[in-house]
Specification:
The structure holds 2 protein chains of 2 kinds.
Chain A lengths: L6 E4 L9 H9 L7 E5 L5 H12 L2 E3 L2 E3 L3 H5 L4 E2 L22 E2 L14 H4 L4 H10 L4 H4 L10 H29 L7 H25 L11 H12 L3 H26 L3 H31 L3 H15 L8 H12 L4 H28 L4 H9 L7
Parallel strand pairs in A: 1-2
Antiparallel strand pairs in A: 2-4, 3-4, 5-6
Chain B lengths: L7 E6 L4 H15 L4 E6 L2 H9 L5 E4 L1 H13 L4 E7 L7 E6 L14 E4 L5 H13 L9 E4 L12 H11 L5 E5 H10 L7 E6 L7 E5 H4 L2 H12 L8 H7 L4 E3 L6 H10 L16
Parallel strand pairs in B: 1-2, 1-3, 6-7, 6-8
Antiparallel strand pairs in B: 3-10, 4-10, 4-11, 5-8, 5-9
Helix pairs in contact in B: 1-9, 2-3, 4-10
Classes of the chains: A mainly alpha, B alpha/beta.
């Protein structure tokens, strides 16, 4: 037994209600259970509080001598690190819960069962952190990024067409907001780069809903139409339970297709506000497509069987929507009119052709993205053509 | 079903919603250790003690006051109870009487003619024991000083700290001249901001007393499952991730064998306050659990 006198901690006039335990904990830290320290000080309630505090911490007190208990060591005996700071774990343990990646996690906590996506490969894309940084740098304020002052006096039919297209875009962007939001909380916080990126995607979509609404109401007090076919198409995205398949259908195919649509609107917008809105939202959408494409490429690289599931998902969605009309006819006609620019037979013919060229460009974009996922040319062509007529 | 065939049945008082979490957790842990165990919750300690003495439960997780009553009632019924288990944090507690600094109240004698706040009528730590401490100094409650009681959670034997906290608040607000609290709560109240330690002086402290225990009827004390229950409790390891959260909630770091010596101060306080009679009958006039 060590007969040397215990070290003395002088608390001066510091009381336990003011943090005295910090000094004692520091002195106890290097000691072993059973080791002793002498605690002295001038605070009036020192003896009273020392006993109370020590009892709650599992230490013993005899006069001014405090004997270290075993509680602290026992609490951390089975603690583990929640992965490493630099790299997400291949598989996150649900009992790490919301702990920071790399934190020392006390055992015995509740499992974060709501986050069922615990396999890294099921959610991962190496580019997530880079895209998140780009998203932060690329955030824009609708109040300052767009000059909302508009003295354009568009023909009523053209303004109606703009309002109809905006109404359609709002509906689609609400789906694009809800789908990642639904999956975000399912992703284990270990994969924080992915969670962070999806958070920016959700914020982007909320902003898109806002600016499309503001443009629609710039000269009008009512919105356009929402068709059953369009909503049925979007519902299949919201209902898709698998994160990878939802990303594929929404972002690779749907938002990928929207890149062409927004370019089309930017090109044929009848007024500067519409043009600017299309330009800004397209920049954001390009990031969403880039993440989803990278995630899908990661999935296919780590599990080639996933390609079959993607093919099946397209076919299943196509079958589910076989009985629906797809794109709202009002939207199609509005796009023709915007591309036409005037209500003359010649102009409408041009507008009509341009919309058909748009649809062909959309299909080609899908084919190209599918090819990057390793689909053979014929299969990529076939799957690209099965995509919903609603574009998203 | 005979008593021997059923799961060991424990009674606990639901003074807080966490009691369900604690005993649900222990129940599952005991099941993992192959000990059939169940529990029932009571709204107050008096009914729990009645059921213990009547044999409707095998063991009661008792307050110190419930222990005193169970011991007396058992003797009156011609049987005995024992207390084989308690928490490490149940030992050697004290209560204190506090006053505002600068109020001129330095000793218990200064409380003559003053108003002293207490916790609930049935709180050992915030009423019965500190008032008996003053009685020991020759000050009879409601005669030599006025008692202002804060009856929160009556029937819970002070486990609901609300009355005790209200007493401290009344002292800080100047509504009373002194207050009775558990010594450990002096630090708790100071840290949470209920009172400022700088503005408060300790006027008196009780002798040490012990708090809760597992109270067992003698007719089940020798049962193998009761022995196993005690063995498992004493073997609970704070390093075990499954039980540590429950031990934290229940406020202990390890279970210890029970001891009876330090219930004497409360036995004396109960007698002098005429709270229970020798047979464990409730004799306090204004106690309605």
């Amino acid at each position: 037994m060590d007969a040397s006198p215990p070290a003395t901690i002088d608390l001066d006039d510091l009381g336990f209600e003011g943090g005295a335990h910090l000094l004692i904990d520091r002195a106890l830290h290097p000691l072993a259970p059973g080791d002793r320290v002498r605690v002295v000080g001038s605070h009036r309630d020192l003896a009273l509080h020392l006993r109370s505090w020590a009892r709650s911490q599992g230490h013993a007190v005899d006069g001014d001598i405090l004997t270290k208990g075993t509680t602290g060591a026992q609490r951390w005996r089975s603690a583990v690190r929640a992965g490493t700071v630099d790299r997400p774990a291949d598989r996150a343990d649900p009992t790490w819960g919301l702990a920071a990646r790399g934190a020392l996690v006390e055992g015995g906590g509740p499992a974060l069962t709501s986050a069922d996506l615990v396999e890294r490969d099921v959610v991962w894309a190496d580019i997530a952190a880079k895209l998140y940084a780009q998203a932060l740098a690329g955030q824009w304020d609708p109040n300052t990024a767009i000059d909302w002052r508009s003295d354009d006096d568009l023909p009523p039919e053209v303004e109606d067409a703009v309002v109809q297209v905006m109404t359609y875009l709002i509906e689609n962007e609400q789906a694009a907001l809800v789908v990642p939001a639904r999956h975000l909380a399912r992703i284990h916080p270990q994969f924080r780069e992915v969670v962070a990126f999806l958070a920016t995607q959700i914020a982007d979509e909320a902003r898109h809903v806002e600016v499309f609404t503001r443009r629609a109401l710039l000269h009008r007090t009512t919105l356009g139409t929402s068709s059953v076919g369009g909503r049925a198409s979007l519902q299949t995205l919201v209902d898709e339970p698998d994160f990878t398949l939802a990303s594929f259908l929404l972002s690779v195919l749907g938002e990928g297709t929207f890149l062409d649509l927004l370019s089309f609107l930017e090109r044929h917008a009848p007024d500067p506000v519409t043009r600017r809105v299309a330009q800004l939202t397209r920049q954001d959408e390009a990031r969403h497509v880039a993440f989803a494409q990278a995630h899908l490429e990661h999935r296919v690289a780590t599990d080639p069987m996933v390609r079959g599931a993607l093919s099946t998902a397209i076919q299943r969605r196509h079958d589910a929507l076989r009985q629906s009309t797809g794109l709202n006819a009002d939207v199609h006609d509005a796009l023709v009119l915007l591309a036409a620019g005037a209500f003359t037979p010649a102009a409408v013919r041009v507008g009509w052709d341009r919309v058909h060229e748009l649809e062909a460009a959309m299909r080609e974009g899908r084919r190209r993205r599918l090819a990057r996922l390793g689909f053979l040319p014929d299969e990529a062509e076939r799957l690209a053509s099965l995509h919903t007529r609603n574009f998203m | 079903m005979s008593a021997g065939d059923r799961a060991l049945l424990l009674g606990a008082v639901a003074y807080d919603p966490k009691v369900v979490t604690i005993w649900d957790g222990f129940r599952a842990w005991f099941a993992e250790q192959d000990l059939p165990f169940d529990f029932v919750l009571y709204s107050n300690y008096e009914r729990q003690v009645d059921d213990l003495i009547a044999g409707r439960i095998d063991v009661a997780w008792n307050s110190p006051l419930a222990w005193v009553r169970a011991r007396r009632a058992a003797v009156a019924a011609g049987c005995r109870v024992s207390a084989p288990i308690m928490r490490d944090t149940d030992r050697d507690l004290t209560s204190i009487v506090i006053a505002r600094a600068g109020s001129g109240i330095e000793t218990t004698n200064d409380l003559r003619g003053k108003v002293v706040a207490t916790g609930a009528v049935d709180s050992p730590q915030a009423t019965l024991l500190p008032l008996d401490r003053l009685r020991g100094d020759g000050l009879e409650p409601d005669t030599d000083f006025m008692v202002r009681r804060f009856d929160v959670g009556v029937g819970l034997h002070g486990d609901h700290v609300g009355g005790e906290r209200d007493a401290a608040r009344a002292l800080v607000a100047g509504e009373v001249d002194a207050a009775c609290i558990l010594a450990a709560n002096h630090l708790v109240f100071a840290r949470e901001g209920t009172l400022s330690a700088d503005a408060i002086r300790v006027v008196a402290e009780t002798e040490p007393f012990d708090h809760c225990n597992m109270t067992v009827n003698d007719d089940v004390a020798d049962r193998a499952d009761m022995a196993r229950f005690c063995e498992l409790l004493l073997g609970m390891d704070y390093g075990d991730d499954r039980v540590r959260p429950l031990l934290d909630l229940e406020g202990l770091t390890r279970w210890l064998p029970g001891r009876l010596d330090l219930y004497q101060p409360l036995e004396r306080a109960v007698d002098r306050a005429r709270f229970y009679d020798d047979d464990g009958r409730i004799t306090a006039r204004d106690y309605r659990p």
